[in-house]
Amino acid sequence: QQTNFLPREKRGRYPKEGDIFYYRHKYLGYGYGRVLKISDNHPANVVIPWSGALVYLYDSFSKELEISPKLDKTKLALPPLCTFFYEFSSGPFVKMKNVKLEKDDLLEVNCYYEVLRKDKQYFDFFTGKEIEKVEPCGNNGTMTTLFIDALISEAKGVPIAVNNLTEDRIKNGTKFKNW
Predict the structure, then answer these.
(1) DSSP category for residue 76
(2) Nearest in space to 78 (alpha carbons), one of 96, 53, 52, 60
């Protein structure tokens, strides 16, 4: 198995803003997330110029699937991250329900740095404006299933699945969060 994510039962659909979803992890059980933004709705598509979603992955895990999981924006497993639609259609993210996003559902600032810039400049995912760094702070690189799994596994201190993305980094002791 290439990741610690367990297979889903059936093919999913493209996400919508406000979707609450779950994923199953070999060591952590059920994890939960929320879709914050779809790239096509961003002003001028400057911040997220590809087809994908900005999501929160909460630091909330359970042995059984919870119908109404506690989603606390101040307790994230990882900083806000961008992911492809694949993670929802064929990947590990399974939609539970859609609940309209309210201002209280979001961090005041959703910080990221651009991975392709040599200088570390920080921006807000929603406004695209340059800001001072605020934690949690991610990057605007698009995360695949393999990378999301490695980041979650590393953050939670469980074994990282060995695959073509992780093998060399595991051998060299490179931390994924620093990559």
Answers:
(1) B
(2) 60
Contact between 87 and 145 under an 8 Å Cβ cutoff? The reply is: yes
What is the Cα gyration radius of the chain?
A: 16
Dihedral through CA 61, CA 160, CA 136, CA 98, nearest 10? -40
SS3 content of the chain, % helix, strand, coil (to 5): 20, 30, 50
In the predicted structure, residue 81 carries a pLDDT above the cut 60 = yes
Q: What angle do CA 100, 103, 108 make, to 5 degrees?
A: 140
Cα(47)–Cα(123) distance, integer angstroms: 9
Q: Residue 173 carries which DSSP code?
A: T
Long-range contacts of 164-170 (CB under 8 A, 24+ apart): none
Q: Is 84 helix (H, G, I), strand (E, B) or coil?
A: strand
Token couple for 32: 């939960």
For the stretch 128-160, pLDDT in tens is 888 999 999 988 878 889 889 999 999 999 998
Residue type at position 146: L
Q: Say if residues 84 and 51 touch (Cβ distance below 8 Å).
A: yes
Phi first, then psi: give them for residue 170, nearest 5 degrees: -65, -45
pTM: 0.88
